[in-house]
Amino acid sequence: MIRLFLNNLDPSILDTITVGDVPVDLTGATVKFNMRPADSATPKISHAGSVRQTGTDPNFVNKGGVQYDWLVGDLNTPDNYRAWWEVTYNDGTKQDTPEFDIKVLAHEPGTADLCTIFDVRESANLPSVATADDDQIQELIIEASAEIMKSVGREFAPPSGDVAPYVTRRFEVKDYRVDFYPYDLRTLHSVVLHPEEVTNEQSLDILLDVDLRPVPATDGVYTAMLLTPWLSLISERSLRFRWPLVDVTGAWGFASVPADVKRAAVIAVRSWLRRDSQVFANVPGMSPGNLQPSPQGTYHLPYASQCIIERYRRWAKIV
Hints:
Elements: E1 2-5, E2 13-16, E3 18-19, E4 22-23, E5 30-37, E6 45-48, E7 50-51, E8 65-68, E9 79-88, E10 94-96, E11 100-105, H1 117-123, H2 134-152, E12 167-172, E13 177-179, E14 185-193, E15 202-203, E16 210-213, E17 224-227, H3 236-241, E18 245-252, H4 259-274, H5 277-280, H6 295-299, H7 303-309
Parallel strand pairs: 1-11
Antiparallel strand pairs: 2-8, 3-4, 5-6, 5-9, 7-8, 9-10, 9-11, 12-18, 13-17, 14-15, 14-18, 16-17
Helix pairs in contact: 2-4, 4-7
């Protein structure tokens, strides 16, 4: 598998066209480089490549060598891809090569990822060429990120699908209080009370009618909102089901993953990769040598990660 980083233009793709493992003479031939997402049949790239000389000896010039130089926008989306060459010989015949794998990686976290492959590899002091476990590391990053956010009821990364400036979410109003659990509001844009009733819905003044909590927002996000008691919470829904509804529109999730949360994610990924008793059985106050791995340690967050994220924990309210 060829691994490249997001939006990089180097290195170029170099390959050799063969027939029966023998490089073919590409004199007079043209080549096209094609690349599609692994889960799609539609090519993302279908551009002309070039025939390259494979040596200074005239007997080896144009013996199968091909090259594609990346264009701006070719590698702008992290994903798994399949690529192949399309060769048109000087007699008009064509040859497609078998597909090969290309993976485009991002240094920064993807949506809802609390750390990157680079963070994990740097923590483990892995050399840049040691990429054999990168696919597994990425899968574990996704799992660890979801488990950490679910465990403490927080939104350390922007939500999936949050591509617009603002996203609207609906909550119940309980005694003039709106709990955003398990979400975190970064910036408030608008609030609509009784959104389910066209004739009764009310756009609130975000400066006079609502008060975001906590004050101050120590982590740069808000977990709840108070409504002024001057508002009427009576609606068809509140009469039937006790609690009225409110639509909250804003930017959600932390602006960036806190450093300690990123560290907790890295620790979780590394421990799941190691799979040894020392990692899973290490409990403060007890000798690790006297313990055995437990299902909790094996399948849940390691103790060190739990300790790091504990300060962020928010408890769900039982209705």
